[in-house]
């Protein structure tokens, strides 16, 4: 065997070791999850995760390939998150609820902790139409926008383990709810009208609230929608006074 052949052989052996160690790492991830579930512990432990990351970065300091190895680690961690998500949710998570209930906020957090894809319905529709939601309403009317929502939900049948952050009105059509439930679990996020008002009062992105952005209008519209939201929901989460981490823990526990 010449030197080149020997190096190639060594490289192949390195790959084998990496494969074995990754298998071991992933089974440890599964054991940690099972342990937390068995003892009713919170699954998301951001402080512990940061600690682990700092430890890794300290260990890597001064290594010749510090940056390259760190890049590999970010993929390893991403994949661990996906393994956890697969283990927990074999379906799409569909977030519904009134404007300002926190659908986008919770979606973003879930995508960070579980590396799940997020479909932000309002954003997808706005991008496809090449105009903002208020402009779609003004140009084509609400019915046109609602039809775009229905079509997008039908497309979601092809997705799995995605977080779907619905527009505030998406769950009001029965047909939409039927689509959501085909391969998703529907999570209703709610908050008091006061909380909603505090969260949305400075924004002009929600055409339904423009000119009506006050607690009385919000209370009345929420009440009008309440029955439909609740009927659509597989689980309900009250978000007043809760952090996004607490909301996500509750979501995991209830699902
Ligand atoms: N649990 C929470 N605690 C404090 N603030 C929150 C919480 N959830 C959301 N917010 C804030 O409220 C505002 C509205 O939240 P978000 O955009 O997530 O609502 P949404 O349900 O997606 O609304 P829309 O239906 O209009 O898209 C944001 O500024 C967000 O930071
Ligand atoms: O509650 C609603 O009816 C809406 C909420 C937003 O997310 C947008 O989808 C649109 O402004 C309509
Ligand atoms: Mg949103």
From TrEMBL:
PROSITE patterns documented for this protein: CHORISMATE_MUT_2
SUPFAM superfamilies, alphabetized: Chorismate mutase II (SSF48600), P-loop containing nucleoside triphosphate hydrolases (SSF52540)
InterPro entries listed in its UniProt record: Chorismate_II_sf (IPR036263), CM_dom_sf (IPR036979), CM_II_prokaryot (IPR002701), P-loop_NTPase (IPR027417), Shikimate/glucono_kinase (IPR031322), Shikimate_kinase/TSH1 (IPR000623)
Gene Ontology terms for molecular function: ATP binding; chorismate mutase activity; magnesium ion binding; shikimate kinase activity
The entry's keywords: Amino-acid biosynthesis, Aromatic amino acid biosynthesis, ATP-binding, Cytoplasm, Kinase, Magnesium, Metal-binding, Nucleotide-binding, Transferase
Chain positions recorded as Mg(2+) binding sites: 104
A Pfam entry, by short name: CM_2
Binding site for substrate: 122, 146, 168, 225
Primary enzyme class: transferase
Cofactor: Mg(2+)
GO cellular component, one term: cytosol
Cofactor comment: Binds 1 Mg(2+) ion per subunit.
TM segment ranges: none
UniProt domain Chorismate mutase: residue ranges: 1-88
Taxonomy, superkingdom: Bacteria
Keyword Transcription regulation: no
Compartment list: Cytoplasm
Assembly, per entry: Monomer.
Family listed: Belongs to the shikimate kinase family.
Role of this protein: Catalyzes the specific phosphorylation of the 3-hydroxyl group of shikimic acid using ATP as a cosubstrate.
Matching HAMAP family: Shikimate_kinase
Protein name as catalogued: Shikimate kinase
Organism field: Schaedlerella arabinosiphila
């Amino acid at each position: 065997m010449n030197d080149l052949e020997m190096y190639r052989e060594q490289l192949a052996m390195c790959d084998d070791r990496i494969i074995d160690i990754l298998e071991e790492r992933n089974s440890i991830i599964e054991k940690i999850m099972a342990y937390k579930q068995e003892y009713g512990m919170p699954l998301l432990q951001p402080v512990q995760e940061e600690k682990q990351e700092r430890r890794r970065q300290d260990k890597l300091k001064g290594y010749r390939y510090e940056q390259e190895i760190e890049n590999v680690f970010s993929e390893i961690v991403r994949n661990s998150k996906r393994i956890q998500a697969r283990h927990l949710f074999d379906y799409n998570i569909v977030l519904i609820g009134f404007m300002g209930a926190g659908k986008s906020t919770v979606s973003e957090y879930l995508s960070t902790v579980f590396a799940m894809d997020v479909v932000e319905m309002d954003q997808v529709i706005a991008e496809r139409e090449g105009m903002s939601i208020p402009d779609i309403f003004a140009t084509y009317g609400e019915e046109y926008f609602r039809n775009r929502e229905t079509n997008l939900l039908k497309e979601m049948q092809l997705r799995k383990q995605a977080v779907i952050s619905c527009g505030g009105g998406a769950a009001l059509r029965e047909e939409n709810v039927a689509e959501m439930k085909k391969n998703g679990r529907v999570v209703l996020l709610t908050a008091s009208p006061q909380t909603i008002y505090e969260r949305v009062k400075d924004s002009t992105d929600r055409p339904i609230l423009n000119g009506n952005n006050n607690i009385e209008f919000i209370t009345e519209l929420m009440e009008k929608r309440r029955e439909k939201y609740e009927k659509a929901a597989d689980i309900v989460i009250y978000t007043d006074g809760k952090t996004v981490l607490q909301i996500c823990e509750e979501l995991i526990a209830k699902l």
